[in-house]
Amino acid sequence: MGKDFYQDAVCSVSQARPRGGLFCLRPSPWLAAMALACGLPALGAQPASGEADADAPPALPTVEVKAARDTLTDTPTPGALAPVPALGENDLVNEPRMDGALVDAGLAQWDAANSLGIGQGLNLRGFSLSNQNTTQLQASRAVLNGHADLAWRFVREPATVQSVRLLGGADATLLGAGSPGGTLQIETKAPMGVSATRLDLRLVSNGTRRLVLDTERALGPLQVRGVTVLHGGDRTEDGLTDRHQAALLSTRLPYGDANQPSHVQLDLEYHRNRLPYAFGAPYEAGRFWLEHDYVDAAHARADRRYTRQALYWRHRFGEALTLSAHAQRGRSTRDEVLPGFFTLLDAQHLMGYYRELSERNRQLDAGLRLDGQWRTGAAQHRWALAWQGHRQARDFSGPQNIGGFTLALDNPVFPAHPELLPLTPRHHFQRYREQGLGAAWQTQWNGWDWRVGMRQARLALDGGNTPGQALQAAARAKPLTHALALGRELGQTQRVWLSRTQSFMPNRGQLASGAWLPASRSVQWEAGWAWRAEAAQNDAPATRQPRPELSVTAFDIRQGNLPAVDPNDRDYYVLRGHVRSRGLELRGQASTGVLDWTVALNLLRARVDPGDGGPLEYLPGVAQRFGMVQVSAPVAPHTRGWVRVLGTARRPGDELATFHAPGHGLVSMGLEHTFQSNPAAAYTLGLRIDNLTNRRYVRALTGADNVWQGDGRRVSLWLTALF
Description:
Blueprint: E1 9-12, E2 22-24, H1 29-37, E3 62-65, E4 84-87, H2 89-92, H3 98-104, E5 109-110, E6 122-124, E7 127-128, E8 142-144, E9 147-148, E10 161-167, H4 170-173, E11 183-188, E12 196-204, E13 209-219, E14 222-235, E15 241-255, E16 262-273, E17 283-284, E18 287-288, E19 301-317, E20 321-344, E21 349-376, E22 379-397, E23 400-408, E24 427-445, E25 448-464, E26 472-477, E27 480-490, E28 494-505, E29 520-532, E30 549-559, E31 562-565, E32 573-576, E33 578-592, E34 595-609, E35 617-618, E36 625-636, E37 639-648, E38 651-652, E39 660-661, E40 664-678, E41 681-690, E42 698-703, E43 706-709, E44 714-722
Parallel strand pairs: 8-11
Antiparallel strand pairs: 1-3, 2-4, 4-10, 5-6, 6-7, 8-9, 10-11, 12-13, 12-44, 13-14, 14-15, 15-16, 16-19, 17-18, 19-20, 20-21, 21-22, 21-23, 22-24, 24-25, 25-26, 25-27, 27-28, 28-29, 29-30, 30-33, 31-32, 33-34, 34-35, 34-36, 36-37, 37-40, 38-39, 40-41, 41-44, 42-43
C-alpha cells in the first residue's frame, strides 16, 4: 500500500500459471495494475539474457507497460481490507461461463433460481447473486466496470472479461454497491498499451468447438483492442446445444504525461446466445430422475442478443485528485420457445408446459466520481465522492400453456406439434429508476486502516400487466446504506479486520394500508485474519514459489423486511421474519516440495425465521459445507499437472428439508505444456478431464420438480498462442 498506485509498472511474464483459485491477501492497486498488465507479451520484445535451465519453464519476453489504474472498477478506496478472491484472464478465457470458473475455485455454489443457462447462477453466503427479478438488479449483485450489469438476462462470455473479483463486507458496500452475500465486480478487457495477439482454440468431447481471438494494436496514439469468440457444438446433459458468439471492441486514447496519465475509453460489445432453457428433472419416491431429458429439444429454441456501448473518462489533476465519469447504454432481447414439463402431476406423470417468450430490456447508466488523497505526517488519507444514475425498462410477453399435455415419467413423449396448443396471454411491463450519492473515506496510520462510507439512494419502480395501459407505481424507497471497517497490520505478515455494513434489496408491492413495501435491509458483520509469508529476498521472480498464505473470514448476515402474500387479501403483501446466514470461509495456498496446494473451504448455516413462532425454514439448494482442494506440480520439463477435488455437502430440497440432494465430490485433472518457437511467441498445449469418474450428481435444485443434473465426464484439449 506504500507505493503510489499510479506509478509505472514493469513486469515479466515468465511461466504459464496452472488454472485454479487465486487469493491475494493484501492486494494493492499498484500490484493489481501489474497483474492486469502482465496478460500479454509484446511483439518484438527481446528475450531475457543468459541461458535458460533445461528444467525451467521457457522465459517469455519482458513487457513494459505504462499502467494507469481505472478507478471506475475499483472499490471506493484503493486496495481491499479483506482478501479478495479473484479470477484472471487465464482462468476465464476458455470457460463458457464465469459461474463454472467461480464454482470450480470453491468460491460459490450453483444456484438454480437463475434458470441455469440464461443468467448468473451463483449463490454467495446463502444469497442468490442475481435472480430473475428486475426489481433486484440495481441492488448491485454484479457490477460491470463500475455500473450495474444487464447481463443477468443472458450468459456473459468470460473471454471478454479481464478479471472477476468477489467482494464482501465493507469492500463491496462503501459506496452502496453491496448486497447480502457479496458483489461480483467484473472488469471487461481494455487496451493495455502493448501490441500483441492471443489465440485460444479448445475442443471438448461433448462436441464443443471454441475459438477466441484477442488482439491489440496501436493506431497512432489510439490504442485498440478487439476480442472475438465463437462457441458451438456444446451439448449439455439436458440434450440441448449451447451456441454463442461475442465481440468486444475497446478503444482508449491516452493523454497527459507519464506522471499524470489520463484517458478516454469507448467500448462496443455484442453477444448472441442460443442455448434454450433447461427444465431440469423431477424427484419422486426417494429417487432423482436423471435418465431422461425433460425438455423437448426438437422444438425448443432461443435467440438472445445483447449490445452495450459505454464511454469512460478518467482525468488526473496533479498527484492528489482524479475525476472519473462514465455513460453506458445497454440493450438485450430474448425470443424463445420453451416446451417441457412444468411440475409433477402424480407419481407417474408430469404436467406439460409450452411457452412462446419475448422480452426486451433497455438500460441507461451514468456516473461521476471524484477521488482524492493526501498525507498528514505518518497518516495517509484517501476519499471518494460518487454520483450514479440508473434506468431500466423491461417489456415481457410470454403466452403459455400449463397442463395442456402430460408426460410419463418412465417414457416421456412430447406432442408432435406443441405449437398448436392454445396459449394464455401473459405480460409484464416494468420501469425502474434509481440514483444515489455516496461518499467514502480511508485513513491508514501506523498499521491501522479505518474506513467509512455511505450512500443515499432514491428508487422508483412502475409496473403493469396489460398492454397499452399506463403503468402503476409499484415501489418507492429512499434507502441509506453504510459501511464501517477497521483493519490492523500485525507486523509484515498478518492482518486482522472487522466491519459492519448495511445494504438493501428493493421490494415490489403494497401493504393493505396502501403503504409501499420497504426495501429488504441487510446488516452484515464480518471479521477476519490473514497471513502471508515473507518473500525470500534472494529468489528471482521467475523461479520463486508462491508464498504460503492463509485467510479466515467469519460473517453474520441478517436480512429483514421479507415480503409474503397477505393471507387476508392476496392483492397485498405482509412483512414476514428474516433470513440469517452465518458462516466461516477459509482460503489458503502453500507449497510442500514440488507440490503447490490451493484450498477453499466454506462452512455455512442459513435459515429463514418466518416470525410466526413456527420452525426455522431451510433455503432449498444451499449446502452447509462446500469447498475445493487443488494440487499442482511439474511433471516434466515445461509441463505442469494439477488435480482438483470439488466437494459439496447434501442440500435441502425444500423449506422443511423433507428430502435432500445428496452431496458429491468431483475429481478433475489437467496437464499444460509451454514451449516457444521464437523469442516473441509462446504456446501452451493443455489437456483437461472434468468429472474424471463420470459421477452422476445434482448440481442445483429449487424443489422436487426442479432438479438440475451436473455435467458428465468431459475431456478438453486446447492450444493457446501468444505472439
